[in-house]
Each structure stands twice: as C-alpha cells, then as structure tokens.
C-alpha cells in the first residue's frame, strides 16, 4: 500500500463517497459537507485547508481518506477539524498522518488560533481516534424527546382572573404570551442565553443579526415563540395598573423545518435540532432557555414551568448540553423516570 497526500480537488467528494459509502454517524453526515477546496479566507469564505490521501495502485491514485481544518465565524477560539478514512484503510497510520499535516497547516491560520475541536459519538472509531490523538471532551450534547404531560402544569397568580391562582394552560397574557420571532426583546435574551451557556467555547460578541440568523430567521424554520414573564408590577404602588410588562424569565422557540445549516460552521447546530414537517404525533423541535441573569433556583423553576407548558399535550424535542444547568435540572429526572428519552446518540465536542 503506497499512500500519497495532496490538496483537495474537484471531484474528490464523489470519488470518496464511492469508497466510504453512507455516513456512519451524524457527525460524518454533517462534516462531510466541510470537505472542500482549500481557501485563504477571501470573499467571505472561511480559511480552510483540506488534504486527501490516495492509495496509489499501478500508478493510479485512488482517494481513500480526507481531512480538513478551518476557521469558524462562530466560536472563533478553536478551529474545526474532521478526518475520515475508508474502513479497509484504518489502523494504518493514515488518520494520524492527516492530523499531523492539518496541525501544521493550523499553525499558519490567519487568526493565529491553533487549538482544534471536533465532534464525535461515544464508542465509535472516531471517538477512539480522537482520544488517542489527545483530544478530550469539553462538552456533551443530547437530543431529548419529552413526552406529553411529563411535568405538571405550573400555577400562576393571574391578574386577568382577579389574582386567583390558575393553571398554566389558562394563565393570562401578563405571564405567558406569544412573541414574534423578530422581537428585539426575544432576540436579546436568546443571544445572551446562548453566550452564557457557551462559556466553555465562547461564541464571541453576537450581533442582533447573527442571533436572528442562527435561531429566529425563517430559514432556520423558526415559526413561533412563547415567553414566560415575571409578574408585572406597578411603579406607583398597589392598586395602580402596571405600565410595563414583566421581564422575560424563560423562552421557547419552535421550529417547523430543518435548519439551513452551513456545513462550514457546525456551531449553528448547537441551537435548534431541526426536523421535517412533523407527522401527527411527532415531536416538535424547540429551543428552550432563560434570562441568564436569573439566580440558579429561579432559572430552574422558570425553565421547568416553560417545559411543562410546551409539552403539556404534545411531545417536544430539544438539544440538551451539559452546560444548560437549568434545563438539565428539569429534563434529567424525566430521563431517569422514562418520561423523556434520547432521540439520538450522544455527541461529544472534543478539543486539545
């Protein structure tokens, strides 16, 4: 076996697909789209280096493996990397050689960033390779389906009903309300929440436009949002009608179609999971979060109340990262009791 290495060329994707076959994991399906010609970062394209390994037989090179490293516009503190080797060429040093070559290329990235990150599925050859290469988990993500009625509805004191406590499904518009996905108020809290739960891999400063594009734009499939507010209070004392709405405590954005994911930026997948138009009874894809300034107990209560409302009659599917402390407090007991289930294998983000 004579292996030679070269830059990616047009047509390599089709040649490799013939050798590789279908993707073995969700990560392979996602990152194969990032295998593309190298770029110096001009014209709005990310800086990228992509290398192909060929098995040369009788003077003819047959692509059997490829690796890529590239900068990301979101979470810029690390470079994304992906390597795939044909099944019958594994454990022969090809992957390790590709990684070493990509590390050398990374040392010349225009941003000066050299740390690598990748996504793997536990128990797979990719996870074993990452561990052997010195890449350690920095985050775990799970796709979870919460079954209808898994949580009891919350009870709110509702001013629309004379202050009498009412269940969540009948709560007045001062506490639970629909909000347009283009709302500046919603965009603000979604952006700050996303930043707060990604302290392990900072997304940098997110503009209003970026938050809209990632989570709330029509192209993401976002088609509705509800918020849970704090009780409105009057600035003029008891008995005087409040002049302002209560602040947003928690939010839920629902999605009706797959997110238009950019294969060069897999960070975009850390929000909505994305799914086709749901068949009757299929779970609705949602992104649930909270005002990041809330105290831990208040955040956990707000998220639990929101989850109980949106999953009262229909199943919902959400992405659960280990960094989502408040959401984990609501969902993990449901997983333990069988009222929620994993919809796919876990994903680990690994880094050096």
From TrEMBL:
Disordered as annotated region, ranges? 259-284
Ranges of Low complexity compositional bias? 259-274
- Top-level taxon of the source organism: Bacteria
| Residue span, N-acetyltransferase domain | 3-154
What residue intervals traverse the membrane?
A: none
Q: Offer an example of a GO molecular function term for this protein.
A: acyltransferase activity, transferring groups other than amino-acyl groups
Name of the protein this chain belongs to: N-acetyltransferase domain-containing protein
């Amino acid at each position: 076996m004579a292996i030679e290495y070269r830059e990616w060329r047009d047509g390599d994707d089709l040649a490799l697909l013939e050798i590789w076959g279908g993707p073995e994991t969700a990560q392979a399906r996602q990152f194969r789209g990032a295998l593309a010609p190298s770029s110096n970062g001009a014209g709005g394209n990310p800086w990228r280096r992509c290398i192909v390994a060929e098995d040369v037989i009788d003077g003819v090179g047959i692509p059997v493996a490829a690796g890529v490293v590239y900068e990301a516009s979101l979470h810029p503190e690390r470079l994304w990397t992906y390597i795939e080797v044909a099944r019958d060429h594994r454990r022969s040093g090809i992957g390790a050689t590709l990684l070493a070559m990509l590390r050398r290329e990374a040392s010349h990235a225009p941003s000066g960033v050299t740390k690598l990150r990748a996504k793997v599925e536990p128990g797979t050859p990719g996870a074993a390779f990452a561990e052997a290469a010195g890449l350690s988990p920095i985050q775990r993500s799970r796709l979870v389906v919460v079954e209808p009625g898994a949580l009891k509805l919350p009870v709110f004191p509702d001013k629309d009903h004379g202050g009498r406590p009412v269940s969540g499904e009948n709560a007045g518009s001062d506490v639970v309300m629909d909000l347009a996905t283009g709302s500046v108020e919603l965009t603000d809290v979604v952006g700050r929440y996303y930043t707060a739960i990604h302290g392990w891999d900072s997304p940098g400063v997110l503009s209003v436009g970026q938050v809209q594009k990632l989570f709330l734009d029509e192209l993401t499939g976002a088609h509705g949002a509800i918020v849970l507010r704090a009780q409105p209070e009057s600035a003029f004392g008891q008995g005087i009608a409040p002049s302002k709405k209560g602040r947003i405590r928690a939010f839920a954005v629902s999605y009706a179609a797959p997110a238009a994911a950019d294969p060069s930026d897999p960070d975009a997948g850390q929000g909505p999971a994305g799914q086709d138009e749901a068949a009757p009874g299929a779970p609705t894809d949602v992104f649930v979060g909270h005002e990041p300034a809330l105290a831990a107990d208040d955040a956990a209560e707000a998220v639990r109340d929101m989850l109980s409302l949106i999953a009262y009659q229909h199943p919902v599917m959400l992405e659960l990262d280990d960094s989502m402390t408040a959401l984990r407090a609501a969902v993990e007991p449901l997983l333990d009791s069988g009222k929620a289930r994993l919809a796919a294998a876990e994903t680990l983000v690994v880094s050096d």
